[in-house]
Amino acid sequence: MKLFSKLLISAALGLSIAHTASAQEVIKLGISAPMSGSAAVWGLGMDWAAKQAADQVNKSGGVTVGGKKYKFEIVTYDNKYNAAEGTKVAQNLVNRDKIKYIVGGIGTAPIQALQSLSEKNNVIIFISAWGKSLKGKEFPLTFTQSNTPFEILGPLYKYVLAKHANVKTVALINANDASGKEVELVSQQVWADLGVKVISSSFYERGTTQFQPIAAKLTEQKPDAIDMGVAPPADAGMILKELGVLGWNGVKVLPVGTSATQLVQIGGDAANGTYMGYAGDYASSLATPMQQDLNKGMLANFKEPLNPLQVSSYDSVMALKAAMETSNSLDPKVIAQTLPKIIFETSYGKTVFGSEAIYGVPQQMQVPIMITQVQDGKMVELARVIPEELKTRLAAGK
Amino acid sequence: MALFVQLLLNTLQISASYILFSLGLTLIFGVMKVINFAHGEFFGLCLLLISVLVPLLTANQLPLASAYALAAIVAMIATLILGAVLYQFAFKKFQRDMIGSFVMSVGLSLLLEGLFLQFFGGVPVKLPDLIPGNIRFLGGAITTQRLVLTGVSIVIAISMCWLIASTKLGKALRAVAEDYEAATLQGIPYRRIALYGFLLATFLAAIAGALLSPLTVISASVGSDYLMKGFIAIVIGGLGSIPGSIIGSVLIAVIESVGGYYFDPSWATLGMFVITMLVLLIRPKGIMGNG
After folding, report:
1. Domains identified in chain A and CATH numbers
2. Which of A5, A239, B6, B88 gives a 20 to 30 Å CA spacing to A38?
3. If 0-12 CB within 10 Å is exposed, 13-18 middle and 19+ buried, where does residue A329 land?
């Protein structure tokens, strides 16, 4: 009987060890993004792009660390673009699922919630949130994998002013949350630096269903331009539609505009002429073959073209793989120290982390700034600006 | 003058949306003393089904107006079926139980929203305009279809007031709302009247969904987005009161439209909560509340 018990215990232990070994071969990568509501298309696309990257890594043999092969698996939760849901998602990812690598995060407020847990629990996070306060020396494990207002607004507004020299006044509208508040400050500063007077700045609540009063307020002082800040495509589409009803036809700027599809579907003809700073034509010859493939996949799955926010999760998966293999470590701290030192492959080609001059730490992925415009219901890429730091680093080869 | 007209038009069209939504919400409370947080999901289901059916039908060469009509009929029937099922298996057991019904309906709302997200996806959809064009009036502007919606809402609100005040069903609903024990003693079949009241409220949510389908951005969470404003409207107007829900809806539309213009859209939302608190402090049962 004793022998039987010993055998049983040994078998159970053996099974348990085998199970652990098997579980260790999968590295879970988390995402906190809006999967429902007006910004859902961003989260759905980000989840999809990350899964494409994980599939690609897995099919090519996985990630090799310490002579051992690992596979990536993506785990995504809906943060509904608000702090309350973002907190729940953060708890799920960090405390419940024990995930050590977050490859995508959207929304400043949900990311602040995530960051409150990630840094102290040794979790590395790659985010697309626009808040400047999310980066810095106090957040050594936080990296931004797509452009933010500090990279976008200057080139975008300059381009708009070059095309519309008559723009002397602008009215701002932003969502009333952490993203909106932080971006509004940067927008005010950049417009003022360029000699444009900000004649009004308003905030609206996410989840707003009636946009007529917002349109009436925006057109109140007859601005030459209206800057819709961080309004997601569905909200921006409704604002544009109501502006059209009121007969306003000035210069429209949507820095966070990620594609024309939803903007045109909702805003109709009123969406034409809108300048965007966060979209790219990934079907054009300017895009890499990988981006063209991803773009086709997005169109097939979501009837939306790929945008920089969505592709950013693909790029962070690739950055993570490169840093894991270079450092030969799975420790998030070691990976975080390695990332700023390496040149790695992304959907854009080779790139680096940098922007220490702006943020005090080199934790901003260097990717092109693409200025686009809605023309006849379609998005047209007008200019593509390669960051100077990226050019220098690639030329130096380090 | 132009500004006054524009603010008036904005108030009218916003009121119309909120009146349509809040009528059903207040009716359920009046009859069953149930705060139905799942009401938004009835509204949402109707909208989501229409958002799927209209493109499907127009792709099969059906004219847009016919596609809207057919989709609305199917969606309203489906919403009524959902309402009947939820009444039978959930709400029936929590009648006149404020706390129990509150917890149950919040749970149902979360469950349904999750199911909608699963089945319909999270990408927001905007259907094509049913009646294109804008109308300019004394310097103000409004889309033709919003003007039509405003007219239809007024007709529905008047019809509801008439139904409650003058028909046998309306009198039974009022009697049950006022004192259900006395009403039962007078021979009014409470359970049947509660079912009719619940289905009527669900039907109103479905009508609201059908009428707003060409106007609003449709997503799995659209019901929750409207629910908060609808709930504020009926709390201000008086829980259970049909005229109260109309007054509450108009009041929050005024705050949203006029307050949003003179101050800030986000301040207008705050203003709604402040007004709600003031109304509850001065008149705890709401403007038209009586029970």
Report:
1. 24-147+286-367 (3.40.50.2300), 150-276 (3.40.50.2300)
2. B6
3. middle
